Write a sequence for this structure.
């Protein structure tokens, strides 16, 4: 469920529910890890590394490492994770 007022999206991974939230810090991490400014993110090929980085960045405040986040995603939930990423970015970039 999304809390659109606070730009939050819930994501279930394993037996736990996490909250995705994109802040200035997490967006800067995406830029650093992928080597492109956020404005050019649409030009990045969405390979596994990019998906993992974007997911991890939205969960930084949860205290997880990039590898820990990656270990919670497999082919069984990959489509769900991609849908939640899209929702989180939509919520994060929507004006109130």
């Amino acid at each position: 469920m999304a809390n659109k007022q606070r730009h939050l999206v819930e994501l279930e991974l394993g037996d736990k529910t996490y909250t995705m939230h994109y802040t200035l810090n997490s967006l800067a991490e995406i830029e650093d890890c992928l080597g492109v400014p956020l404005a050019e993110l649409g030009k990045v090929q969405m390979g596994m590394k990019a998906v993992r980085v974007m997911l991890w960045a939205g969960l930084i405040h949860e205290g997880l490492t990039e590898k820990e986040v990656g270990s919670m995603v497999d082919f069984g939930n990959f489509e769900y994770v991609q849908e939640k990423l899209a929702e989180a970015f939509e919520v994060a970039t929507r004006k109130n």
Summary: The chain has a mean pLDDT of 88. The first helix runs from residue 24 to 34.
